[in-house]
Specification:
The chain has 125 residues and is of the alpha/beta class. The protein is built from three helices and five strands; from the N terminus they run αβββαβαβ. The longest helix has 20 residues. The N and C termini lie far apart (71 Å).
């Protein structure tokens, strides 16, 4: 009597489909972190190019662009007026205090992206 063979091809096919579904669903999941102590970055890489625009967000929520203070409430309009005509390939570095609200950082970041800058670096320790 001949022993039956185990065919694992359908099993592998099913696992690959499940893996693809898992990968797609994980990217759509929203993560809610309770405590994040940022910024702590890589010690092996360092910025090699000097930024043309330096953005600093202090602990108390003040925003400075190239050492000039901007009002956070009107940051998008003020930034657009001052830097809207600049070369959009200019390098922008953002240095934000790790204790600021995420919302504050995202407001500044979104305003910079909306003006059209695409080379944005985030400075860490």
């Amino acid at each position: 009597m001949k022993k039956p063979e185990l065919n694992i091809t359908p099993f592998v096919d099913i696992m690959l489909v499940l893996l693809a579904i898992l990968m797609v669903s994980v990217t759509l999941t929203v993560y809610q972190e309770k405590t994040v102590d940022l910024p702590q970055g890589s010690r092996t890489t360092a910025a090699t190019k000097k930024a043309e625009i330096d953005v600093v967000i202090t602990k108390n929520g003040k925003v400075f662009v190239n050492k000039e203070e901007f009002d956070l409430r009107n940051f998008e309009e003020e930034f657009n007026l001052k830097y809207g005509n600049w070369n959009k390939n200019a390098l922008v570095y953002i240095a934000a205090d790790k204790h600021i609200k995420y919302q504050t950082f995202m407001k500044v970041y979104a305003a910079i992206v909306k003006v059209g800058f695409r080379q944005i670096g985030l400075l860490t320790q």
